[in-house]
Amino acid sequence: MMENDGFETWKYENTLVDTSDEDTDMVNNPAHYNQQGIECIEAIAAATEKGFQYYLQGNIMKYLWRYRYKNGVEDLRKAQWYLELLIEIYEDEN
Question: Which position among 19, 42, 69, 78 has the lowest Cβ density within 10 Å, counted as fewest Cβ atoms?
Fold first, then answer.
């Protein structure tokens, strides 16, 4: 994390959830979330500042809510990805 005008910003790293058994990594590195060299998650972190943790919490809840009805294990891995990121950020702040 880097200090930026009184709040911490987070730098995207796509190595949190092991999905090595999948051909296309739709959890750690979905191509549709990186346009013109900008990761969507970094733009959201910058735009939400201190609210970024709430954004992560909302995504965790969303993927846990829908995994039985939509993408199964892939959604559980996405929830895990967001949870591990939230833990990392929370630990860095405390």
Answer: 69
Please tell me whether residue 23 adopts helix, strand or coil conformation: coil
84's tokens = 């591990």
Residue type for position 94 = N
Q: Is the pLDDT of residue 5 over 60?
A: no
Look-up of token digits 């590195």: 29
Task: List C-alpha distances in Å: 18 to 8, 27, 36, 37, 68.
Answer: 26, 9, 26, 23, 21
User: Mind listing the pLDDT tens digit for each residue in 49-64?
Assistant: 989 999 999 999 999 9
Cα 76 to Cα 7: distance, rounded to the nearest angstrom: 30
SS3 label, residue 46? helix
